[in-house]
Amino acid sequence: MNRRESLRALGAFLAGSPLLSDLLPGQQDVVRDHSRVPGLKELLTAFDFETVAYAKQPREAYDYRAYGAEGEFTLRRNREAFDWVELIPKRVSSGAMDTSTEVLGTKMAFPLLVSPTAGHGEIHPEGELATHKGASAASGTPMILSNNTSFPFDKVAAAAPGPMWVQLYPKQQLDANRTYLEAAQMNGARAVVVTVDQQVSYYERALHDRNLNPGRGGGFRSAAGRVSTNSNPYRVGDNRLWYEWKFFDEIRPFVKVPLIAKGIVTPEDAKLCLEHGVDCVYVSNHGGRSLDYGPATLEVLPEIVDAVGGKAPVIFDSGIRRGTDILKALALGANAVCLGRVPLWGLGSFGAAGVQRVLEILQAELVQAMRYTGRTNLASIDRRMLLTNFP
Ligand SMILES: Cc1cc2nc3c(=O)[nH]c(=O)nc-3n(C[C@H](O)[C@H](O)[C@H](O)COP(=O)(O)O)c2cc1C
Q1: Could you state, in order of their start, the residue ranges of all structural domains in the chain?
Q2: What CATH topology corresponds to 41-199+240-388?
Q3: CB of 339 sitting under 6 A from ligand 1
Q4: Backbone angles phi, psi at 158, to 5 degrees
Q5: Which of 289, 315, 355 to mutate to test the pocket of ligand 1 (most atoms within 8 A of CB)?
């Protein structure tokens, strides 16, 4: 190749190169540079909301919500488990659709609640107020307010008319639990959810971020912006490793509403719940954020439902993204399901309107799946409508 040929070859390379198009605006890639974030009405599934939320949030805020514990086996398994359950179609369903139910005295138009998740203020200025507004607007979907909320219970409750439950991470000082739970009940909490699964608060990716950003002061930074110190910063925290089942007996005197244990994944623990006066078993693995290599919640749901034997309602979360997922959990015996990340994607993308829309999409998908399987009310949903292929 002579000098002229090599210059020509270099020119051709540069003309097609993104390096040059950055320098020459007139030659920019049309699609790339006119990229846009889709509008609310263009989003058709919950997954669409995740990509928009990702685009609108700081990377760190997205990561905190997306990740699971350690190698994220359980996070993936939660989703995979839905692929092991098939729905048997039934071609004709007649009559009006009724998806309404009542769980622990809380009436709901759909068997759906918002799971407690921390720090909504980090992804939207109105935080939990907007989540509650959006959930209420979606046929009065009840919201379980996290112990690590960005706004206090009374403010969130005042923002919208829908029912609210309150979640507690047990505190060693009994009085601290009492003050918190009494205030929430006074402001209208209709049930108390005590989370027992995430006994440690450790996220590998958060730790990694922290190491990349030493400005944070050497402790795990929660979504609410707090820094909690840990006696062993490279492994599990020790802030929640102390409690025993008798904690439920101890708080019962000041819980006047139904009491729920969240994070149950074995029949043995479900039975212990009943022995300790718990009114409802909440099957959850914290959306894959507790013990990695723990089972998918859908896998263990049937044996827990059998162990509870109708003595208490069973509610369920971890991995639900679709109406068919909801239907499968109901068919395996859940009385209602809760959604963790899905409403966060709605909130992070379009605030209250996003929460409302994403919940309405799942509600519509549930109705569609019920129609396809010939079910017109929740009472008619049962295991006979499924083929389960759990390994
Ligand atoms: C970002 C994030 C924060 C969470 N914070 C809490 C919390 O404060 N209290 C709690 O009991 N569970 C918390 N969870 C667990 C959820 O309540 C729920 O169990 C889980 O998200 C369900 O899985 P899903 O996200 O796949 O629906 C959190 C989950 C996520 C993703």
Answers
A1: 3-33, 41-199+240-388
A2: TIM Barrel (3.20.20)
A3: yes
A4: -75, -15
A5: 289
